[in-house]
Amino acid sequence: MIPDTFIQDLLTRVSIEDVVGRYVQLRKGGANLLGLCPFHNEKTPSFTVSPTKQFYHCFGCGAHGSAITFLMEHTGATFPEAVRSLAAEVGMTVPEQQRSPRQREAARRRKLEVSQHQQVLDIAYKHYLAQLKASPVAIDYLKRRGLSGETAARFGIGWAGGGRRALATVMPDYESPVLVESGLVIEADDGRRYDRFRDRIMFPIRNQRGQLIGFGGRLIKEGEPKYLNSPETTLFSKGHELYGLWEARTGIRHEGFVLVVEGYMDVVGLAQHGLNNAVATLGTATTEFHIQKLMRNSSRIVFSFDGDRAGRQAAWRALNTCLPLLRDDVSIRFMFLPDQHDPDSYIHAHGVDAFRQAVDQAQALSAFMLSELAQRHSLDEPEGRAACIHEARPLLALMPESAIRVQIQREFARHVLLTPEELAAMLVEHSVSRMGQGAAGSSAGVHQGTPVDRSTMPWPDDAGAIPADLDDIGGPPPYYDEGPAASHGSAHFAPDNGRASSRKRDIGAVGQQRSGSGVRRMQQRAVTPMAKRLLRLLLAHPGLVEHVGDQQLEILDNSPHLVLVRDLITLANISGARHAGALLEAAEPGSELADVLAPLSTELIGEEDLPDPLTEWNDALQRIELDAIKAEQSVLVQSGLRDEASQKRYQELTRRRTLLERAPGG
Questions:
Q1: pTM for this entry
Q2: How many alpha carbons lie under 13 Å from residue 127 in its C-beta half-sphere?
């Protein structure tokens, strides 16, 4: 484990302009530095580095982060490798938190297991390459599929012959359990062993760092299964990996989008035609891990499916997986090829330009979703529209709070002859019922106050006088607003895989870290205007946390829509982060807080520092306390102030409110 305190100390010593400048030619642009983005293809610089805030952001593709993040994304380094590299540059030694003998032994075994698996995979890979050169049948098949030797070499394509124990000729110990654990060999019930892959074109599968983690094999003769992947192993999980992503990284940046196809040959065939931005799932339906990985590599994703019933069903499953992960800055589209065509055959029949045109005309996710729902129900009659709404409600509820969700809901409401408000009320009712809170009043989201009988209402003295008109008090404070104003401009929230304060980093981790449980929230929290204001202040001036007292912390704790502000204060205190780049690095990747901070950092990168951020902070907290007092007074008035405790509380609130309103800025 690398201590968080070391990470923060490292980031204060490292200059992000020096780190990025080794890979990107930067020039002065006001207070920041500008250059061509290394993560996507562009001709006009949109990549910005802030020396004062110590983070980078690309306004073209959305890439952002600290010096550590840059090395990981640009070079493929793991987190520990990036930290070690930067530490060496500034003369720091990476410490490891003390681990028990049991933990050290487990790490040693894990490292040994990974090393052994990679060794046998590398041996098998070299064997398959050699077998291809010696197999006229396999070479002829690849030529008939239109692949050149250069393309085959680029993807490392090989050949597994028909021998049942061919790997025994190259493996030091064919009886080693590692061969079974790595998926290269199958052991029968009677103990006899044989090669898993036989008579197959072999496709090496690599992770995002280019490391070999498994194989896919395709039969070239009749037989089943036509495609065969490595089983789940220590290194390989097909629900997490995408074939061709390592090879396509440059092509994705050049083309400006990633194309998701169905098989290895589709990926390789497209590359042969100059389309080097294709990847494929590995014999499994698209998972949320696939979507997250695609989004990290491009802001434009195009899925290609067969146009038959099976293809459209697969596309619908992919759409369902995408819904909880939708973001306003990511475009997801669906392309359907004519029956009997895959990408390779379509290009052979119609040409590369026609295929590119088909990609450009791919359906937006929203259009595909709405057209599919419309086809399943008769929208010219009330019963059909009601059934359509019934099917759509759980889909719409999956979407995070975002502009795209609002747009899709409005479009759907128009199709089923509802107002946007009527549809929104139905969605709230659906979400509440799913959470086991089926009360009609609660599902409507409206609190009905107790009627006030003014004739019997006791009237305290003027110091705590109850206003004659409830409008004088004001309704619930703005930061309680859950309507469109609150969600306007809100960030996309990915599933929260743990609070940032408990972030752990494994110094011995191999490959990229995988997400946690993947549990989704039923309702995502909107970033309200006040919360956004405070988060921006803290992100731009993390030193403010040193001035936050117990009273202000209590105010934040009692404000349900400021939970993320409280989390950010905790994160800054625990991590010791004192600039924006360090805070971004300290936030747990994929957490709600990290996803909120990312777009806020984009806004901050072009702004000058405030002359007096502490005054701005105190004014905001004073406004929050005032609004909370007004809200509590409103509740007390609606209850009728029938008992002495309520009257006393009202007077206390009035006195506090008077003090705040008379204070500077009140």
A1: 0.61
A2: 22
